[in-house]
Write a structure and sequence with these properties.
The protein is 24% helix and 28% strand. The chain has helices at 4-18, 82-104, 164-169; strands at 27-37, 41-51, 58-67, 72-74, 125-129, 138-143, 156-161. The longest helix has 23 residues, at 82-104.
Length: 186
């Protein structure tokens, strides 16, 4: 049995050939990376690249949180109240996103208006990290092309510390697996 992508590629090849156009092979590449491992969790990221014709392929990102104790697959966001997390991280996320945009755009935020607005960080790939290997003390957001800037700007990666506000957004049953990031120099 052929998957939907294979069926689509075969149909596109037939159409291109019958119309005298070259057909460029479709491609899918998926890359997994370990973000961190704590006694209970394995935090992973996945980058997926798909080319199905056109000027360029598209890249998407997601995360997987493996609960080693329960033997269950979870999403990072499932450990939070999403609205509370959005409220807790959005100001710092937007500041960092704009700083990265200015860097990529040579210190201006010109260009198309839709690429200057702040986006919802909880609608991006949410990655949980740990500098200690014991509890999560960082939260990362991977923003694919077209979400915060044009394709040519590539991805944006924003990593924020776990603060008191972030900790409050964690569902009560999961708070013990998080720790606030200590201020540098203390």
């Amino acid at each position: 049995m052929r998957d939907a992508g294979t069926v689509q590629a075969i149909a596109s090849r037939r159409e291109a050939t019958s119309n005298g156009f070259p057909f460029h092979a479709y491609e899918t590449v998926q890359t997994w990376k370990v973000i961190t491992e704590t006694p209970r969790f394995l935090s992973l990221s996945v980058e997926r690249y798909d080319y199905i014709g056109g000027a360029h392929g598209n890249t998407s990102y997601s995360s997987l949180l493996w609960d080693k104790t329960d033997g269950e697959r979870r999403t990072s966001l499932s450990l939070f109240d999403p609205q509370a997390l959005r409220a807790a991280v959005r100001p710092a996320f937007c500041r960092e996103l704009d700083a990265q945009r200015r860097h990529k755009r040579d210190a201006t935020l010109g260009g198309m208006a839709e690429f200057n607005r702040c986006i919802d960080p909880t609608r991006q790939a949410v990655l949980l990290g740990s500098s200690t290997g014991s509890r999560f003390n960082r939260i990362g957001f991977v923003v694919p092309p077209y979400e915060a800037g044009p394709y040519a700007e590539g991805i944006y990666e924003v990593t924020l510390p776990v603060t008191a506000a972030v900790l409050k957004a964690v569902k009560p049953q999961w708070r013990g697996y998080f720790a606030m990031t200590r201020a540098r120099g203390r």
